[in-house]
Amino acid sequence: MLEIEGLTKRFGGVAALDGVRMRVSAGRVHVLPEENGAGKSTLLKCLSGVHRPDGGAMRLGGERFAPHDPREAERAGLRFVHQEINLVPGFTAYENAFVGRPYPRRRGLIAWRAMRARFAEVRDRHGLDLDLDMPVGRLSVAKCQIVEILRALMDEARILVLDEPTASLSQSEAAMLHRVVRRLAGEGRAIIYVSHRLDEIFEVADDYTVLRNGRTVGEGSLKSTTREGIVSLMAGEEIVDAAPEVHHRRGTPVLELSGFRPAPSRPLVDITAYQGEVIGLYGVVGSGRSTFLKAAWGAKPNASGRIAVNGNAMPPAGIAARLAAGVAYVPEDRRNSGLIMQHSVLDNVVLPRLETCRAAKPLPLISWRKARAGARTVLARLNVRYRRLDHRVSTLSGGNQQKIMMGRWPAETTRLLLADEPTRGVDVRSKAEIHGMCRRLAEGGAAVIFVTSDMEELLALATRILVMAGGSIVLDTPNRNVTRQSILDAVFSRPGSTPTEALGGAE
Amino acid sequence: MTFLSRFGTLVGLVAIIALFSALSPDSFAKPSNLVNITQQMSLLAIVALGATFVMALSEFDLSVGAVVSMAGIVSVTLFGLGWGIIPAILVTLALGFCVGCVSGFLIATWRMPSFIMTLAMGTIVGGATFWISDGATLFSNIPAAFRDLGRGYLLGIPVLTLWAVAATLFALLVLDHTELGRRMLAIGGNREAARLTGVPVVRSTVWAFGLCTLFAAAAGLLLAARLGSAHPTGGNGFLLQAYAAAFLGMTAFRDGQANAAGTLLGAAIIAVVANGLTILGVPNYLQDIFTGLIIIGAVLVRNIARTSP
Question: Fewest Cβ atoms closer than 10 Å to its Cβ: which of A247, A277, A488, B283?
Fold first, then answer.
């Protein structure tokens, strides 16, 4: 039904898609086993008309398919159910189903009964169980997924794309969803199913396409492959060269966590980070990495357990104590929680180091002369390209913004750097510079913990590798003789395990 | 930032002054009238400068009008109880400061919407003010020395103008030259980013709301001193005008940020329009219409200046 051939898409100099091939047939469930950054989200955005591909062709039912915008994709019969739930909590299921669609009218007013009846008919046609009159805010996550799916099915859908639909479902809820998906395929639709849970892939899907670095590296029927086959396709065969030199001699502990719970109903985490270590924290999206890092920074009010920095106990929540102890934090989402985009470069650089810009030590008065001079020094050291200090920080490139987020913390006093995806969406040169910053900090006796979804980066930068799945550390190893394969094995090693409920936070 | 987006509002004020000067050269453009305008705008400027602190946080404090009224009633009541001038002033200012601190604390810790929280706080303060005063205008027992704070001249300049200058300098100092001020603006720019960068959000928010109502209480004291009386709703009219001035101020000098100099400029525009139209014999309600149109115009010009490169 859907044929994709040689699809490419570049962002700047980076090829997000570089020759994707995919064949999706009617009546079958087609799975895209997902590894972070393989190109899946770009592919879905090309399908939904958000991005325009740079090359290659898509054909739908034999006809050329090149949607300019999401409406056109919708008219062609594609429906998307995104990972995040996008419902109005105070509306009932049927009211939600009509958001963005013309409401049925009766004498100019909304025909509530007709609306409800239409939705009930769709629900019954697909044999689903759902309370129509409950506001969706009071439904379980699984039921909300069902509402999302029914919304997508309100008018005839030829292809239904489900993006990680089970990411936050329990085992039994996931099983129910699988039955729904099988039935929808049985009615002749094509289903594209994105999942990072290898255990469910074999349960629900017929065919697969594996992407790696934006390229199709394997496709076919799941009947003729195995779990190990898929994992090795995702991992690729490659020799990791130039793994960083591992410090055999461990320094004193910088960060000690014991019985630390980043958020209620998350598993306990015990980690000790030593001086000179660059710890890479890997895991799929939703594994709890960001929540963990944020909690270590003291920004999760419900964290509990024991945490000490340089031997001094800290409250489980509270940023001020971390700051005083020389901890620094770089959040994942630089646009919404990192920098203040509409403020100047100067304001953003100076914010965490206001104390260093005082006109006279005892008074909290700022000397702007000192602040400007200090900011210029920082920016020069970081090799940030900017035109004027009072230009908005949003006018800088992503790489320069990221370097500012890392480098504005006073390096002399930083004992521990917590960086969440420090190089996402950053050009190669800035990436190398950011890696350099991490290494220099570690050489200076600090510890660095960074979260990454980029396997290459993990293997190239980390001296020690931690893998997180479902909120627990499932692998803790020095970066020696580690391969992509062994890391992915750890990520997917727990069949039947489900990521605990998606808790607030970036992931 | 282009010249227009930075100084457009200032150019607007100059144009308005030029227009009124041309229309009534004998009365508007007289130096004594211009000095008079600085006095007329002074209390509005002080309330608006206070509001600038919470606008820096991208929040609102709707209790400022009620706090202005309260300050007058409380101080005059204390005089009636035989209190001295300085203790009465200090207690009134402290009370004003506390009103904002309570609002700010609840807003910061419980994430109450500031609009609702301060609307409720303003209602409470207004009710308490009525209670204290029995709804009556108070004008007895006001010491002459207190009245001098709001009338009279120093070196030929009205004292009220001097108070407004002092308030402007203080607000400028706090917002642009203290860590507290920069933190307030950071919170206003992006609360979550500021929090994750280690900005003490609760403390900064409490300070901003406290300073806001402190300024309102100061304006209330000066109002009572100037009038020689206190009315339980005498300050309520300042609320909307103060935010009008602060919004006008956000269109000037800084890229859409609350700033003290801009707020002063906004207050000046409102005062000049009121004064000029009164001299021309235009009725009050038309003045309000003009003020509203000027605010819309200023924001439009700023947005156009910003979008065109």
Answer: B283
Single residue among A365, A394, A412 that ends a domain in this structure: A412
* Contact assignment for A352 to B198 by CB distance below 8 Å: yes
Q: What is the CATH number of the domain that holds B64?
A: 1.10.3470
Chain A (275-334) residues lying within 8 Å, Cβ to Cβ, of chain B:
294, 297, 299, 319-320, 322-323, 329, 331
Pick B196's closest partner by Cβ from A299, A350, A365. A299
Q: How far is CA A276 from CA A245, A415, A445, A473, in A?
A: 11, 10, 5, 21
Tens digit of each residue's pLDDT (9 = 90 or more) over A230-274: 888 887 754 444 445 555 556 789 999 999 999 888 899 999 999
pLDDT above 50 (res A507): no
- The answer to whether A352 contacts B178, with C-beta atoms less than 8 Å apart, is no
Phi, psi for residue B24 in degrees, rounded to 5? -140, 75
Burial of residue B233 (number of CB atoms within 10 Å: 0-12, 13-18, 19+): middle
Q: Which of A294, A300, A319, A348 to mutate to test the interface with B (most CBs of B within 10 A)?
A: A319
Residues A125 and A8 in one domain: yes
Domain that holds residue A347: 341-412
- State the complex-level ipTM: 0.85
Same domain, A19 and A82: yes
- Digit-coded pLDDT (tens) for B71-85: 999 999 999 999 999
Q: Are A190 and A27 in contact (CB under 8 A)?
A: yes
A323 CB neighbours in chain B (<8 A) are 198
Give tens-digit pLDDT for B168-203.
999 999 999 999 999 999 999 999 999 999 999 999
* Cα–Cα distance measured from residue A275 to residue A277, given in angstroms and rounded to the nearest whole number: 6
Please name the member of B189, B200, B256 whose beta carbon is closest to the beta carbon of A340: B189
What residue ranges of chain B have pLDDT lower than 70? 1, 305-309
